[in-house]
Amino acid sequence: MAKPFTKSEAATFFARLKAAMPEPKTELEYINPYTLLVAVVLSAQATDKGVNKATETLFKVADTPAKMTALGEAGLTDYIKTIGLYRNKAKNVVALSKTLVERHGGGVPRDREALEALPGVGRKTANVVLNVAFGEKTIAVDTHIFRVGNRTGLAPGKTPREVEDALLRIVPDAYLLHAHHWLILHGRYVCVARAPKCPDCTVRDLCRFSDKTKPVAAKPVKKPAGGAKKRDS
Questions:
Q1: Could you please report the per-residue DSSP string of 58-85?
Q2: Which residue of 17, 126, 201, 213 shows the fewest CB atoms closer than 10 Å?
Q3: What does pTM read for this prediction?
Q4: Mean pLDDT, to the nearest integer, of 169-183?
Q5: Is the distance from CB of 80 to CB of 89 less than 8 angstroms?
Q6: Residues tagged active-site
Q7: 184 backbone dihedrals φ, ψ, rounded to 5°
Q8: Architecture of domain 33-132 in this structure
């Protein structure tokens, strides 16, 4: 078993990620807390790019729970049918919108329990909304963060909740607010699932991953056979 990170190493880990990405932020596009919530619900098993393409038009006509409720499942489906699991997502988005209107006056609650009580909203989605919309020091563990936490040894765990709890213990308070975004972006672009880009990694010397990838050797330049022909004078 790899040696656990010390608090000092964790501080160095995040200091380097911060230096590489001073102001990290979600790549999901949104207008307000409600549209952020909807975007995160739609992003399950889908790419941020794909969600943004769909919501660019959707949010022009439905950027509040009341407008989304009026749009209805059938209307919403027309906007999000390019996203995976769109039928179930349409059902959940309309249902959570109705709940926000009926129980929260059309606003998004700044409360984990209330958020997780909404249709289609789990702990990860609640953590994203609390962090991005309300500035809470939460960490939403998705597939990227789960991989980075385990691969690097920073926060190993068998479940997303175990990784989340491990991160909350090891991440210095000064980095907690943006830790979620530094880790997800690092996992999305550097510590990728297949063939991680270890030579380009700013924390590779701290990482406990034993099978680090090596730089790709440059191919030798082939010289013309027989050399260049001599020109006639």
A1: HHHH--SHHHHHHHHHHHHHHHHTTSTT
A2: 213
A3: 0.87
A4: 96
A5: yes
A6: 124, 142
A7: -70, -40
A8: Orthogonal Bundle (1.10)
